[in-house]
Amino acid sequence: MMLYRISIIHGPNLNLLGNREKSIYGTESFESFLNKMKSKYGAQLQIDFYQSNHEGDLIDYIQSIQHTMDGIIINPAAYTHTSIALRDVLLAVKLPCIEVHISDISSRENFRQISFIKDCCISTLSGLGLEGYDHAIQRILEIIPHWTKD
Ligand code: DQA
Question: Given ligand 1 and candidates 80, 104, 108, 131, which is best to mutate, with the most ligand atoms within 8 Å of its CB?
Fold first, then answer.
């Protein structure tokens, strides 16, 4: 069986998951959920995880994985709605990318309606809670074998 390597990348304030605005983002910490995903996908998949509250650090990290990872699952949090630099680095590294939001950004405030990365991603999963990441993993595993960087 082929081993694929993916990175799940989190933007600002997602380190507070489990404690932050629980009615919107739930009570489970991401570490706990990630452990479940690692057991579920086992040897088939290496899942790395990176979280930062800093835009430039997210960009440095994405640049650094260009040749070591097969795909990206990203929840840029508030940078979704503000960061052209994040969009540009996703286009630069040419890795298959899936956008995830825990809440349904389409039914929230107007300023959350714009995603600067949406059209650089294969798909966007929004409003499925943490389960959205599981769907994203399944989708990226389907895509990676067919992906070419040109
Ligand atoms: C979020 C939605 C964003 O609008 C918000 O800034 C976040 C989390 C989500 O996962 O629902 O921090 O990306």
Answer: 80
Q: Assess whether the C-beta atom of 53 lies below 6 angstroms from ligand 1.
A: no
Instruction: State residue 1's pLDDT score.
Output: 59
Report how many domains make up the chain. Answer: 1
| Beta-carbon count within 10 A of 114 CB | 11
The domain in which residue 136 lies consists of 4-146
- Amino acid 68 reads T
**Dist CA 69 CA 66 (whole Å):** 6
pLDDT < 50 stretches in the chain: none
Identify the CATH number of the domain in which residue 61 sits: 3.40.50.9100
Q: What is the pLDDT of residues 73-111, one digit of tens each?
A: 999 999 999 999 999 999 999 999 999 999 999 999 999
Report the catalytic residues: 25, 101
Specify the ligand 1 atom closest to the Cα of 127.
11
**Strand spans (E) along the chain:** 4-10, 45-51, 71-75, 97-101, 123-126
